[in-house]
Each structure stands twice: as C-alpha cells, then as structure tokens.
Amino acid sequence: QVKRTPLIAGNWKMNFDHLQAIAFVQKLAWSLKDAQHNYAEAEIAVFPPFTDLRSVQTLLAADKLAVALGAQDVSPHEAGAYTGDISAAMLARLDTRYVIVGHSERRGGHGESDELIGLKASAASAAGMVPVICVGETAADLEEHGAAAIPLRQLRAALGKLPEGAEFVVAYEPVWAIGSGDPATPAQAEEVALAIRELLRTERGDAVADTTRVLYGGSVSSQNVASYLKQPNVDGALVGGASLKVDEFSRIAQFQ
Ligand code: PEP
C-alpha cells in the first residue's frame, strides 16, 4: 500500500483576529515542540480567516515553523470587478498552500453549486495551491440516498472542472456531524472514504487514487482522532471547533 502523509487541518472559520491568530500559532508551535512532534509523521495546516493570513505567514516564515497555511475559500475569478472576492493569486502570494472549497457552510449558507466549487478548485490549482474539496451529505440526504451518493456526486462535479494532473485533497464531512458533537463512526467514515477512493481510481487512475489524501471531518477531537486515522482510507482530519483550542489541536496533531 502507498504511504500517504496524514494531513491534520484546522479550519478556524470566522474566529480569531490577526493578533489572536499570532498568539495561537506561537502557542501551537511551542506545544508541538514540547511534545517533540514528528513532522514527518503528519502535516499540520491552519486555515485562518483572510485577514489573518499575512500575519500568520510572516510568523511561520520568521520562525521556520513546519505548519502549512490554508485559506477557507477563494474566488473562481482571476481578477477584476468582483467586490469582496479574494483571488487565488493573492492567496498564493502569501505562501498559502491549501484552499478549502465547498465547505458545507458555503454550500448551504451561500448557495454554492457543485459547478462553482469545481471552478474554485480549478482556480486554486492554477495558482499552484492544493484545493481541499469538501463533500458530504446532510441528515436528510443520508436518510434518502445513503451516505456515499451525495459526496460522490459533489466530487465528480468538482473533478469535472479540475484539470488532470492537479493535486488535491478530498475532505469527507457529513453535514450532520459538523459542529454537532455527533461524529460519524470510524466505520462510516471509512466506507465513504473507500467509495471516494474508488471514484478517484475510475476518474483519474491508480496513481491519483493511491496518492490523494482523503480526510474525515465532523466533530473530530483528541479522543476520537486516532480511530479515524487507523482506517486504511482515511488520511487525516479536517477539524473545526477543536482546532480553536491550542492544547486540543496539538493533541489531535499527535494522534499516533
Ligand atoms: C468543519 O467545519 O469543517 C468541521 C469539521 O467542524 P467541527 O470539527 O467543529 O465539527
């Protein structure tokens, strides 16, 4: 089996101003250092709000911290008259490595379509970043279609816009598990992660299927993270609420 480096990703959502962000990342770095975290075992990324990116970038660069920077969204457009949008080129200039696209809070709260999410993934990739494509079913979807059908539809649509050869990460996040304290079981997460990998194999071939990381997200904590990472097709976690507490996120990053 191909070894995939696990990715532990902290999605801060709309929390922390830039001063709080700096304090958080400094504490995180100390905590990981104290714990003698082995960065070869897992990659760690934080996804601050746009207004924090520059401050966090400067801190990471100055202290040579092995934490990657991610953004929570990106415009599908290159530049121009798109008030309020942030372009992929702007993010790439700040050493942003990852960009979340299609988080359920944007699909649901902002009416983002599968197609738009594919265009955002493609824009991120064209600027040299790695889109983290979020997919997941609502509780109603689960009841009506089972767990995998909707995530697979969402992923197929995004891949339709993403050129061959683009690196990407998939995050399986059942909407009913996000922020609910009611996570999917490891077996449920594995079942959908496996279905995602099979789709990748059909759509993109063995190399992409074997090397692409599939994360689980939805009420992940230091108590349950290891149970997901033990699954053969789960290669990391996208963490919301628990990524806002330094000690907790640090423990999650040391899931082994
Ligand atoms: C998320 O928003 O991506 C998420 C997984 O949130 P939480 O960990 O709080 O469920």
TrEMBL record:
Instruction: Write down the superkingdom of origin.
Output: Bacteria
InterPro entries associated with the record? Aldolase_TIM, TIM_sf, TrioseP_Isoase_bac/euk, Triosephosphate_isomerase, Triosephosphate_isomerase_AS
A GO molecular function term, named singly, is: triose-phosphate isomerase activity
- Residue sites binding substrate per the record: N11, W12, K13, G179, S219, G240, G241
Active site annotation, chain numbering: H103 (electrophile), E173 (proton acceptor)
Which keywords has UniProt assigned to this entry?
Cytoplasm, Gluconeogenesis, Glycolysis, Isomerase
Q: What is its EC number?
A: 5.3.1.1
Q: In which pathway does it act?
A: Carbohydrate degradation; glycolysis; D-glyceraldehyde 3-phosphate from glycerone phosphate: step 1/1; Carbohydrate biosynthesis; gluconeogenesis
Per UniProt, subcellular location reads as: Cytoplasm
Q: What class of enzyme is it?
A: isomerase
Reaction(s) this enzyme catalyzes, per UniProt = D-glyceraldehyde 3-phosphate = dihydroxyacetone phosphate
Q: PANTHER family under this entry? A: TRIOSEPHOSPHATE ISOMERASE
What is the role of this chain? Involved in the gluconeogenesis. Catalyzes stereospecifically the conversion of dihydroxyacetone phosphate (DHAP) to D-glyceraldehyde-3-phosphate (G3P).
Quaternary state and interactors:
Homodimer.
- Assigned protein family: Belongs to the triosephosphate isomerase family.
Please give the name of this protein: Triosephosphate isomerase
